[in-house]
Amino acid sequence: MPSNPEAPQQEDQVVLLDSVPHPAADAAEPFIVASDHRLILCYPIAESDFERFGPFDPDDDPFCAVLFPDAVFHRLGPPGEVDLEVHPLASQGLAGYSVHEVMNSSLAAELVAIAPAGSAQRHFVITFLESTFECVASDHTVVGVFGAGEIAMREAFSLVR
Predict the structure, then answer these.
(1) SS (H, E, C) 111-130
(2) Element (H, E) at 142
(3) At 114, phi and psi to the nearest 5?
(4) What is the residue range of 23's domain?
(5) CA–CA separation, 60 vs 55, rounded Å?
(6) Residue 33 forms beta bridges with which residues?
(7) CB neighbours of 64 closer than 8 A, spacing ≥ 6?
(8) What is the per-residue pLDDT across 63-97, written as a single tens digit (0 to 9) for each?
(9) Is 6 exposed, middle or buried (0-12, 13-18, 19+ CB in 10 A)?
(10) By CB count within 10 A, which of 17, 98, 99, 139 is most buried?
(11) Is 99 among the domain residues?
(12) Nearest Cα to Cα of residue 62 among 100, 98, 22
């Protein structure tokens, strides 16, 4: 029987990353600012992370900006929270409103052929209310947590140029 090319390989292992703010469950949609190989994802953070990444004013709507340098692949789209179980990594522990790294990623392994020589490739997955973000890049860095989405967007554009 032929194998399903969309199915994750057994080596894929989903690990939660607690060093990055969790996405908010009921807030604005995430957005991406990207250049050829540099990508910044901005999204509203969960209220449970306000104290850890704050302090914030009561009228703030905190957004974080996460940089993914040397990105060779990214996508933002379905599935969302309601149908997350259809994601190929759901059986490996993909959780809603969370930030993950996929260790021994079959997707990253497939992309090695097109990645610049010698670049380390890591697979990241962030789940939101209506979408899932995936990226294969050399690393990730929280470049800031800001009081509003407009500020995060301005910072993201300045860092990508």
Answers:
(1) HCCCCCCCCCCEEEEEECCC
(2) strand 141-146
(3) -105, -10
(4) 13-160
(5) 10
(6) 40
(7) 20, 21, 42, 43, 45, 53, 142, 144, 145, 146, 152
(8) 999 999 999 899 999 999 999 999 999 999 999 99
(9) exposed
(10) 99
(11) yes
(12) 22
Q: How many distinct structural domains can be found in the chain?
A: 1
Assigned token pair, 114: 């097109």
How many C-beta atoms lie closer than 10 Å to residue 129's C-beta? 17
Average pLDDT of the segment spanning 31-38: 90
pTM: 0.88
Q: Is residue 8 one of the residues assigned to a domain?
A: no
87: amino acid identity, one letter: H
Local confidence band at 157 (pLDDT 50, 70, 90 cut-offs): very high
Helix (H), strand (E), coil (C) string for 27-93: CCCCEEEECCCEEEEEEEECHHHHHHHCCCCCCCCCEEEEEEECCCEEEEECCCCCCHHHCCCHHHC
Tell me if 119 is assigned to some domain: yes
Q: Which amino acid, one-letter code, is at 7?
A: A
Assigned token pair, 161: 């140029």
